């Protein structure tokens, strides 16, 4: 074998190794903790492009994860989510780059527990870590749907009042 053939073989092996390892390496973007009442949902919207991984760890109780590229409020109903993870431990869902954005993410508190406390980590594939967030390239005149903080507070207070009454 000629020296340049050996070098090209080594280079090809190195590129293959790098590609396979970068494709499965995730870089954390954001993490947060939250609480969810049994039988209730908390919803999030994912705007960022790229291959995304969501890790949901139930610290107390049991929180489950539902994801949809067509519904912003996915539920456990079979026709209302694309992927889900409903283990009693860590829930992990991979969202491919091909999913239409925004992606709806629902965290469901299992009704067996009065309350579930969870930690959620959003990570991006190593190869996609340099991509800008989706909203950084949105034209300035484009409409971006955002919920008012007052509306969110009102809905949460209403949920608490209903939970007390029921």
Describe the structure.
Helices cover 23% and strands 36% of the residues. It has a four-stranded antiparallel sheet, with no helix packed on it. The model is unreliable at 134-146 (pLDDT under 50). The chain has 166 residues and is of the alpha+beta class. The protein has a domain at 26-130: Sandwich (Jelly Rolls).
What key attributes describe this structure?
single chain; 166 residues; alpha+beta; Jelly Rolls; four-stranded antiparallel β-sheet; globular
Topology:
Elements: H1 3-23, E1 26-37, E2 41-46, E3 52-60, E4 63-68, E5 83-85, E6 90-95, E7 103-109, E8 115-125, H2 149-165
Antiparallel strand pairs: 1-8, 2-7, 3-6, 3-8, 4-5, 4-7
Number of strands: 8
**Helix amount:** 10-25%
Count up the helices. Answer: 2
Q: Which outline best applies?
A: globular
Per CATH, the architecture of the domain at 26-130 is Sandwich
Instruction: Please identify the structural class as seen in this structure.
Output: alpha+beta
Low-confidence stretches: 134-146
What is CATH's topology name of the domain at 26-130?
Jelly Rolls
Average predicted local confidence, pLDDT = 79
Strand content: 35-45%
Strand line-up in the sheet with most strands: 1-8-3-6
User: What is the multimeric organization of the chains shown?
Assistant: single chain
- The SSE string, one letter per element, is HEEEEEEEEH
Task: Give a quick precis of the structure.
The chain has helices spanning 3-23, 149-165, and strands at 26-37, 41-46, 52-60, 63-68, 83-85, 90-95, 103-109, 115-125. It has 166 residues and is of the alpha+beta class.
């Amino acid at each position: 074998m000629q020296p340049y053939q050996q070098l090209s073989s080594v280079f090809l092996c190195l590129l293959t190794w790098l590609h396979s390892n970068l494709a499965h390496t995730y870089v954390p973007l954001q993490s947060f903790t939250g609480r969810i009442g049994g039988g209730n949902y908390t919803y999030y919207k994912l705007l960022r492009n790229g291959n995304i991984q969501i890790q949901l760890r139930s610290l107390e109780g049991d929180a489950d994860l539902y994801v949809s590229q067509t519904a912003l409020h996915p539920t456990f109903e079979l026709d209302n989510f694309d992927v889900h993870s409903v283990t009693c431990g860590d829930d992990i869902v991979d969202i491919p780059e091909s999913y239409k954005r925004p992606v709806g993410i629902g965290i469901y508190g299992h009704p067996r527990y009065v309350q579930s406390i969870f930690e959620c980590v959003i990570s991006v594939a190593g190869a996609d870590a340099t991509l800008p967030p989706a909203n950084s390239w949105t034209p300035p005149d484009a409409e971006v749907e955002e919920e008012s903080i007052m509306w969110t507070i009102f809905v949460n207070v209403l949920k608490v009042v209903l939970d007390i009454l029921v």
